[in-house]
Amino acid sequence: MMILGIETSCDETAAALVTGNGEIRSNVVASQAELHARFGGVVPEVAARRHLELVAPVVREALGDAGATLDDIDAVAVTARPGLIGALLVGVSAAKALAWARRLPLIAVNHLHGHVASLYLRPLDLDPPFTCLLASGGHTMLLDVQERGGYRVLGTTLDDAAGEAFDKGARLLGLGYPGGKAIDELARHGDPSAYDFPVARVPGLDFSFSGLKTSLLYRVRDLPAGELEARRADLAAAYQRAIVRALVQRIEAVGAERIAVVGGVAANSELRAALPDAALAPLPLCTDNAAMIASAGRYTEPSVYPDYLSLDARATA
Ligand code: KG4
Ligand code: ZN
Question: Which end of the chain is more exposed for a tag (fewer CB within 10 A), N or C?
Fold first, then answer.
């Protein structure tokens, strides 16, 4: 069994080949980050057009890397929700066309399920039950995972996602887009105790990051002229510490025995170090990729030809 995964929900055009038992045969990710950097964030229309240019070459490269052809593919899995609607439509249309041409089954995957399913790929091959923190540019959620086919949402963000907090913070610090990785790197040279940033007090298991972002805005604004350069690393370190603290506090509040962390923010070195006993998604599988989509496809009901010709992309989960 060989699954072709396709992911185009945001600004990564990705394709991967994954076997039925979770081995990654190829995993190609073409990032559009540079294209969007000068706008300070993803421009949906620009992303959709770029996906259109990249999706066929990226699928071809994924097949080539695995030494496979379309004849070897048994099913096509594609992100159908949630995400930028124009971007999603490119992947869904490409997947439909590929599946239709060969009368293959099509599997419509939820992108969030995809992030969780990054843990089901070999060699990690993690088995539920576990409590999962999903922290990305678009989502911050605590999930109760009892089986590989799904999950139950325990808590979510009331405003910004954790990755969004990193990106907006990076922008305030003049670090460009996307900013999570830049803050992570700069924070290593800073003193996290130089500033005291608040961790929002939200009842239950939900998150809130907008107050933290505002707090950074004021700190930067109140700096004497020309001081930002000298204070940037300390601000990055303290700001990152506050985000990591908020995430870790919530995980601890669940009191679960087994913890896993997935999504782009799971790549953060301080978060990884703060959770030594957690199952962490492997670094290349934290940010958006298609191997995780193919992996989720292994646990999602496929749709047969011609039923999937009416499949639509959806912006919401
Ligand atoms: O999962 P992902 O690729 O896309 C979404 O589904 O949203 O996550 C992207 C997010 C961005 O906000 C990016 O800044 C953040 O993950 N990110 C990081 C790091 N690497 C990526 N945040 C903190 N530290 C990192 N090392
Ligand atoms: Zn994602």
Answer: N
Measured from the alpha carbon of residue 137, the closest ligand is 1
Q: How far is ligand 1, taken at its centre, from the CA of residue 264, in Å?
A: 3
C-alpha span between 136 and 141 (Å, rounded): 9
5 lines ligand 1 (CB under 6 A): no
Quick: pLDDT tens for 4-18: 999 999 999 999 999
Q: How is the chain split into domains, by residue range?
A: 2-123+287-310, 130-280
CATH topology of domain 130-280: Nucleotidyltransferase; domain 5 (3.30.420)
Based on DSSP, count helices (H) and strands (E) in the chain, helices before strands.
10, 10
Assign a CATH topology to domain 2-123+287-310. Nucleotidyltransferase; domain 5 (3.30.420)
User: Nearest to residue 151, comparing CAs of 139, 166, 168?
Assistant: 139
Residue 233 CA to ligand 2 centre (angstroms): 27
Closest C-alpha to ligand 1, atom 16: 264
